[in-house]
Input
Amino acid sequence: MNESDRILIADIAMDKKAIKSRADRASLDPKIAPNDHSTISPLGSQMTLADTSPMPRILITLGDPAGVGPEVVALALSSFQIPPGFEIDVIGDANAGTPGKPDQKSAAAALDALHESVRQLKNGSAAGVVTGPVSKQGLQSLGFPFPGQTEFFADAFGVSNFGMLLTGATLSVGLATIHEPISKVAKLLNESKILQIGLLMADFLQRRGIEHPRIAVAGLNPHAGENGAFGDEETRIIAPAIERLNATKTARFTGPAVPDAIFREAAQGQFDAVLAMYHDQGLIPLKILDFDTAVNVTLGLPFPRTSPDHGTGFSIAGKNLASPSSMIAAIRLACELVQSPKPPSL
Output
């Protein structure tokens, strides 16, 4: 970490005594984590409203400290763009990694922060979590058995009905399959998966104030299969799933839509979201249009979990090149969802 980063962190950090006091009040026990790195980081805690009344408490995990996580968290918390009325606590050890040089120690710090966030969410001391970027390879080198943080939180809370959605200023995209090799996508697709993510998307959009969501469902194949000329998944799986979704009357689902055109229509405002069949089908248009504002949301959890839609940025860590825009958006969305009740119809 360079000197400008240390100054920035010092400017927004609590002193060690205040941090210890806050940790005591939250009954923190670093021994809960497997490698004892999971401590309140030097970034400390921030209240966004000077008030003694209880406020919703949102956690931020730093992610891998060898990446841009500590930088973008520090910049976000000092941006004056965090909404008032929340207590924000940072979990992780910012000193457990050298910028740009990930290793098992930095991966362990990221993992321990995730375990600590789960503990606090389970004991009710936190209402939501924003997760910093992690190295999946680094975590898996420690025996982490999940494809990503989405699946980690779902498993930790025993949730099988979950999904991934990414939302930015222009597009919102849900994924029928998540971290899967493209060679397996067609075999993994089924009506139940599409029905599950479609209902979760409708719930998310209603929580954000869209009473009657309009959701386009993308096809899998070129030209949405063109009546079986380029594949039959549209007629055999996707169209029946859309029929079942519309029968729930939770939203208006349209499709199977031609994948190379539907995202443009959604970006123009014809739809509130697109249900994509696989990871890159949805994320390529989203990141082209909304890279700086996109947020990853885990749907179906009993609390809001958001994350900036970018990786660890090891190649730019510590060089003052990382933008905090996506982290700011992730924190703001977590704050919004904490205060947004589930719609009565779902």
User: Anything to note?
Assistant: DSSP finds twelve helices and eleven strands in the chain.
